[in-house]
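Hi C.,

You asked whether I'd gotten around to modeling the 222-residue construct. I have! Everything is below, sequence then structure, no commentary in between.
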Amino acid sequence: MKGKLIIIEAGDGSGKATQTRKLYDRLLAEGARIHRVEFPDYEADGSMLVRMYLRGDFGAHADDVNAYAASTFFAADRYASYRMKWQKYYEAGDIILADRYTTSNMVHQAVKLTDRAERESFLAWLWDYEFNKLGLPVPDLVVFLDMEPEAADRLIAERAKATGQSDIHEKDKDYLHRCHGAYLELAEKYGWVRVKCSSGGEPLPVEEIHSKVYEIVEAALR
């Protein structure tokens, strides 16, 4: 019996980690057999190429690495995580709650391709590569946290100021704004459930967003 794979997906600075953690804690307290994972899995060996890419070792801009090459970096990280950390739980019927997944690659790499036919060809390749060739599970539910770019920009800046760190994606506002447009497009294409997380350029309260996310996920798990 396969488990349920639920993805919390969003652009940078949109509160994915916070919402994933709050949802995990609530479902765990309710007695769910649930496991939380996040991508990239920065502490694992499988993420080495991802870390090199994001810190700019292959170029200071996201577009310096083509969509196919970058996608293989992230896919290897997911494959290692699946095989070594959560495959046994998923196959035992447990819930896997992921902060990002293949869905992030669909956005962050597809946005590099401006020609629509070329973008569609890439998306078809990525789906086949990860879910067929690598055998990674297809998500049962993707919850897209839709944070307006203006709100996300401020949250990213605040986080960078506090930590002193930012990756090549977070340093490029134009790239992140294009990603938001791609998120909206792909959410409609693949049937991701969209949760409005800001209004007038200001983030909505964390608890308000959590309530919406919990309601969606709880219904999917019935």
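If it helps when you're writing up: The two ends are 16 Å apart (CA to CA).

Thanks,
B.
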